[in-house]
Each structure stands twice: as structure tokens, then as C-alpha cells.
Amino acid sequence: MSKYSEGYLCRCCGKFHDELPMSYGSPVPDYCYHIPSEEKEKRIEMNDDLCIIDDEHFFIRGCIEIPVKDGEGPFIWDVWVSLSETNFNITNDYWDVEGREEKLEPMFGWLSTDIPCYPETINLKTNVHTRSLGERPYIELEPTKHPLAIEQRKGITMKRIKQIAEELCNEEEQ
């Protein structure tokens, strides 16, 4: 049995959780939170994987995968990345094309999700790697000294994943 399926007693809420979460996500790009609710329907066009704001800001949903050193992995942050209009249109043109991962080169993007548990993550530089149909793109962070980029390159431990779970639990409780 893997370590994360054994569950854990959360120091934050005091409850026992059956499993340690191995992924977290954001439902929308952070830029959506800055749009007044009465304007959202008019200004935002989106589905589960693609988003356009004001016909000038283009986003795709993807996965930052982090290797787990001492357990089963990867640990995944489900995030949004901005693309240029050209790259967004190319992505959209190939969205339903079998073998698209062979046809599209990685595309530059800016991370557009504020990921908790880290210093500022908005506008970290990324490369968006298209994967096969049914799979969200792989988001590769620029190899900087940012803690998230370091974790993506070097991996994290189950202890760190538990720490993230407790910190996010604490945020939900507030």
C-alpha cells in the first residue's frame, strides 16, 4: 500500500483524512478574479481547458508535475498559463487532432495561477508541452531558483505534500 493512501491526521483541522491529496487545481485563471461578477459573462469565454478574457488574453489549463521522492507520484498542480493569441489559435486548431503532441512544439507562456504554499507564482515563465488527446498539457517551469521550479526539477517528499495539505486545509477553514 502506498504511503499517501494510508491517510493522515491533520494538525490543522484535527481530523483524520483517508488519503493525502496528490493534486490541487484552480478553476479559472487568476485574472478572472479581478473581473466584477456582473461583467464576467460578457468578458469571459471559457470551458474546462481554454479561456479567453476580453478577446485579448488567452489561457490554457495544464499540469505542473512534481516527482515524489519517497512515494508514488507525481504530485500535480492543475494551473492556467497565458499564451500569445497566435499560440492559442494554433493550440485550438489542433485541439481534437490525433497525434497533436507530435506536431506542436512547446509554447512559451506565463503562469497565471497564484499557487498557495509558495512565494508569488503569477508570471513565472513556462513552456507548455502538448500531450495526446484527453491529456492536459505538461507545464514546464523555467529552471530558476523559485521554490516551485526547484521542486519540479528535484522532486518533493511525502512530508512536504502533507505540509501542503495542512496549509491548504488551514486556508479552507478561514
List keywords for this structure.
5 helices; alpha+beta; two-stranded antiparallel sheet; 27% strand; eight-stranded mixed β-sheet; globular; 174 residues
Structure report:
By secondary structure, the chain is an alpha+beta fold. It has one domain (about 20-155). The protein contains 5 helices and 10 strands. Strands 3, 4, 5, 6, 7, 8, 9 and 10 form an 8-stranded mixed β-sheet that branches. A hairpin with an 8-residue loop joins strand 9 and strand 10 (about 140). The protein is globular and about 45 Å long. The chain starts with 7 loop residues before the first strand and ends with a helix.
Concise account of the structure shown:
The chain is α+β, with helices and mostly antiparallel strands and 174 residues long.
* Helical run tally: 5
Number of strands: 10
Distance between the termini: 33 Å
Structural class: alpha+beta
**Which runs of at least 5 residues are low in confidence (pLDDT < 50)?**
none
What is the 3D shape?
globular
Strand content: 25-35%
Domain count: the total is 1
Largest sheet: number of strands, sense, barrel closure = 8 strands, mixed
Radius of gyration: 17 Å
Order of helices and strands: EEEHEEEEHHEEEHH
Helical content band? 25-40%
Overall pLDDT metric: 90
Please write out the topology:
Blueprint: E1 8-9, E2 16-17, E3 23-25, H1 37-43, E4 44-46, E5 50-53, E6 57-66, E7 75-83, H2 85-93, H3 100-103, E8 107-111, E9 125-129, E10 138-141, H4 147-154, H5 158-173
